[in-house]
Amino acid sequence: MEGAKGAFLRLYGEDYGYPNSPKNIDQIRALEFKRLEGTVYLDHAGATLYSEAQMEAVAKDLTSNIYGNPHSQSESSMAASEMIRAAREQVLEFCNASSKDYRCVFTSGATSSLKLVGEIFPWSKESCYMYTTENHNSVLGIREYALEKGAGALAVDVKMPESHTDTSGSCNFTLDISLHKEQRRFNEFGSFSDIASENSCHHLFAFPSECNFSGTKYQLELANLVKKDMGKVLKGSGHYRYSRGHWMVLIDAAKGCATQPPDLSKFPADFIVLSFYKIFGYPTGLGALIVRNDAARLLKKNYFSGGTVSASIADIDFVKRRESIEQLLEDGTVSFLSIASIKHGFQIINRLTISAISRHTRSLASYVRNTMEKLRHENGPYLCEIYGSSCDELGPMISFNLRRLDGLWFGYREVEKLASLSGIQLRTGCFCNPGACAKYLGLSHSELLSNIEDGHVCWDDHDILNGKPTGAIRISFGYMSTFEDAELFLQFTKTNFLSKTSGKFRKIIEKNHDNDNSERMLITQIPFLKSIFLYPIKSCSGFSVECWPLHDNGLLYDREWLLRSSSGEILTQKKVPEMIQVLTFIDLRQQVLLLESPNCQIKLQISLQSHGFVNEELVLYGQRYEVEGYSADVNAWFSKAIGRNCSLLRCCSTKDNSIRESSSCRVENRKLNFANQAQLLLISTDSLSDLNIRLKSDEDELKRSGKTMCVDSSRFRPNLVVSAVGEPYAEDGWQSLKIGKTCFTSLGGCNRCQIINLDPWNAHAEKSNEPLATLASFRRVKGKILFGILLRYEKQTTKDLNQEKEEETWVEVGQKINVLSYNN
């Protein structure tokens, strides 16, 4: 890495690392971000990080001063009022805005600021809300207010000029704007029939200072052009009527202000929104709306609260509002202790200077972008598809997708999962910017609607649909990012995604090349069923048995129950590791489910014969279940066992649920309880032994903890464990098999997630990336990390007097495995 850093510094040494500041970047990281050791944090566009020095200053301030409710005249209240006044000035100064022209209104965040503008803007049927397609959902949401008031809405694509020399704020530069179809909720148009309506009509144009998807920086001269000469923009567009009236401009600076706040002395927009946690990490839940004084006078807010009025009378329609813009627009008491914190964040920024932060972060982004653009697979195709034109000025972020050797895409969820295992925190998805996402990914309206109909929503795992990505991967740099962060990310990308001959997935079944080249190699050992495991309650502990009956849904009673939180969330070990401490056992003779927990003094028994009380419908994994609940006493026992309020539910009907075959996505008419993917999961001891050999050779783990890891089958929560399959991962090639006399069909490999990194015997064990990280190094297939196979039970029936008679079927430890067919 030292050689690479030397080359980097020769190119970017003047911009990187704050050479003229009291502390350079290495000192800042060592002294103020010790918690980042072992972590590469690359989601500063989502939320940057606060420094330890900043939080120490906040704590000292709040423990040394008394800030009371500012809506009073006490000494502590006056101290809070003065602190808030100074904070408003500091925010205006950050954007080079004069207090003669602007006011700073504190809100709960950038989204709240945008919502406030939409709610109280003077919309009319003659109004137009125009916005760039590359905008955050929070900006698009203003459209709802405009359309409900009868106004029109227009999305526009803006192509910024490649170069310009005018820095005075005049409108001498040209701009390429293409308008989309006008949206209008009601078929009523304003007529501009007289001068009065023309002069009283107001329009709003919204754009980001920096796109949070592509990183494209919009030239702020756009604000001046819209305000002074909208006729030039709309001429010949069919919407020239909107050139009449008054155009106002909103700039979403939530992303861009971290490295380049808008200069409002040159580009006097009417509304500017900021988010403080994106500038210096803390506080969250606090934003600002900077509003021009003349624009504020047009805003009409109906609601009033404590601090927004001078007087009101309870039993008659009388209220006298305050004249201060801030008090008129803020709802009641502002978050004054959070406001007290922002000066300490600004001190960090001012000490480094915003220009130095911009140069520092830009140097890292340029280095990574230039390196990624050159990455190629062995046979020549480029690895990275990077979004955002290099002709435009770009912010310190990179959005991209990765292509496989064959030209198909790596799923962004696969990239995110592997990055997390490597200690790299990045962002994936659409970043709440649907317009930019559709534009750069080339998704048409029909494709977007088709994806939605297929069940795709924000934050789900549908990262590739119909051969196209549904989102992207984004990395972004902050003022405390280092060259080492950038280089570790590049090494991660090369190691995990560039094709290498040695990285090909190992063969799982060898063919016996006899005369017709069609027979499989004979296996000298006969595979047999070694263990059977049952997990009655989803994500709780299971138990082993020597034999067990099969049912329509797989093993009888397997994953027939689950726990649901008081908010309706289905609980799993991923979020509630304590669930593994709930021990379960089923006594078939007594027909009871037995439960115990170290957190409960008494054991619990639940009858298998009598169901609970409340019938309801539950949707899980896109399937509908009829479920029944249990008594308050039962729910109280589980709540105590796992340390949070929850209720127990039992699946009582699965007639509408089916298995989705992983290889072809073909829906099969087989029932499921609450299992994630299939009725049964099978692993082999041969594969487990191979994995443990690899784990024992992990030198990094040995250095970190002084010991190597060894895992048993419980990590993978299998139903069936088989031995003597011939070689590790031979089960991957099975298509159909018999265990004893019972037939099963393989539905493909089981895709693994971070839950296998949890120690099943210790819910509070130190977090680890193993064994998933090791599996990812050699068991990745088309975006999945595979271990074990999913099985479907093929229920047998016999003909008896023209009636189908079901046979009771059991699986038993020691039964032989007969592989009936193999995958091609």
UniProtKB/TrEMBL annotation:
The active site is at C432. One of its GO terms (biological process) is Mo-molybdopterin cofactor biosynthetic process. This is Molybdenum cofactor sulfurase. It comes from the Eukaryota. Sulfurates the molybdenum cofactor. Sulfation of molybdenum is essential for xanthine dehydrogenase (XDH) and aldehyde oxidase (ADO) enzymes in which molybdenum cofactor is liganded by 1 oxygen and 1 sulfur atom in active form. Its EC number is 2.8.1.9. The modification N6-(pyridoxal phosphate)lysine is found at K278.
